[in-house]
Amino acid sequence: MGKIKISQLPIGKDTRCPWHGPYRDGKLFNSEEILPNNVCPWLYNTSYPYFLGLLYGAKFNWNERGDCQVACPATNGIDVIVQKRDNDGSFDPRISDKMKFVIFAQVVKRNGDCPYHHQLDERIIFPTCMMGHYMCPAAFVNIFPLLRLDPPSCIKKDFIRCPDWADPIVLSIK
Prior knowledge:
15% of the residues lie in helices and 22% in strands. The protein is of the alpha+beta class.
């Protein structure tokens, strides 16, 4: 997969943004600083609304803990469960002990080959608990459509899955 590079331009005035404020003189973010766990950008973009929902207290109806199921857009892609759990220190050493919880997607099924090599039980952490290690996820999702990335071989415009893998709806772009 191709590398992504995104530049934050220098900030001309004060900002209250905790994500971008530290880079007052600008910053070049590379793929490893943009996408946690080198996650597929399409899966990250699809998962973002569910990550954000859990961050702000949403409870989804997949189970009693408020988790939700999210599908990679590829028809034969991966299935994940997006979860919010107490920070027990086992997620990533870059996560501060001060973080009360961690939001992540856990791979629960591979329906075919994944060019991003996502594996069963892999955790893709929503980086709100690792500020300073990743680019702001909201900024990435906002510019994602403008990146004009070539979709990986697993994504076909004629067969795109609905994000809810429990309901097998397939869409087609004509």
